[in-house]
TrEMBL record:
The keyword Membrane applies. The chain crosses the membrane at residues 30-54, 89-107, 194-214. Residues 71-216 form the DUF4328 domain. The keyword Membrane applies. Residues 1-15 have a biased composition (Pro residues). Residues 1-21 are annotated as: Disordered. This is DUF4328 domain-containing protein. The lineage of its organism: Bacteria, Bacillati, Actinomycetota, Actinomycetes, Propionibacteriales. Keywords: Membrane, Transmembrane, Transmembrane helix.
Length: 235
């Protein structure tokens, strides 16, 4: 046996020493899936907006006038609203999971020195109470600064602001739903629901643009750095 001393194992690299991953085609695939899902959610909200608009107008008039059709229309209103609401909820859950995976993959392709948090926290920050009011935006801002623009993030700010407004209005809507017991509270519920649908439509469209611009920038910048513009990313 050799008498030479055995060198101790090298310590694991610190986060700052992490070597960025090469952007993979999975990022494009995830971005495409997110875009389709969020676009469908926007369509659902357009239909829901119409349902609540009718509930606030035509249906209320039927009830006031004692129309025989009011009972059947009330059942239709409840059924369609419940079905579309459930579809929207499932859509957001799936889109949210895909978004987290997409964001983590882009974070892994970003130099560690450009990020204030590790790639794992780019997903985890979305689930921290209170912290999720600003941490996800900070993480997205880091990615945006490296890949898209260090000086202009107006689009990102609008997206986050509208997203927060949508979330808060959604909480107000849930509290109003519990209060519904007469025509007055029913009208109030529908008016708030109309506002929620409108804001969610805008939030969805802004999210689609953010995903599209960031994804495109990742591959454009990577191609320029490689000197292989137009090259297909590694799978």
């Amino acid at each position: 046996m050799s008498d030479l001393p055995i060198a101790p194992p090298l310590p694991p690299p610190s986060p700052a020493d992490r070597i960025p991953d090469r952007p993979s085609s999975a990022i494009r695939g995830l971005a495409g899936a997110i875009t389709v899902l969020v676009a469908l959610i926007a369509v659902v909200n357009v239909v829901l907006l119409g349902v609540h608009w009718w509930g606030n107008g035509g249906f209320l008039n039927e009830v006031r006038q004692g129309s025989p059709a009011a009972y059947d229309d009330a059942k239709w209103y409840d059924d369609i609203r419940r079905m579309l609401g459930n579809a929207e909820l499932v859509g957001w859950l799936v889109a949210g999971i895909l978004w987290c995976v997409w964001q983590v993959k882009i974070a892994k392709a970003t130099p560690a020195g450009e990020l204030r948090r590790s790639p794992g926290w780019h997903a985890g920050s979305w689930f921290i109470p209170i912290g999720n009011l600003w941490m996800p935006f900070q993480n997205m801002r880091d990615l945006w600064s490296h890949w898209v623009s260090r000086t202009s993030a107006a689009l990102l700010g609008w997206w986050w602001g509208v997203w927060l407004l949508s979330s808060q209005l959604g909480r107000v809507l849930l509290s109003e739903k519990v209060k519904v017991g007469d025509l007055g509270t029913f009208r109030s519920f529908n008016r708030i629901a109309i506002a929620v649908c409108g804001v969610e439509i805008v939030a969805s469209l802004l999210a689609i643009v953010v995903v599209s611009q960031l994804t495109r920038a990742v591959f454009e910048q990577n191609a320029k750095e490689d000197g292989t513009i137009g090259a297909w990313p590694e799978s």
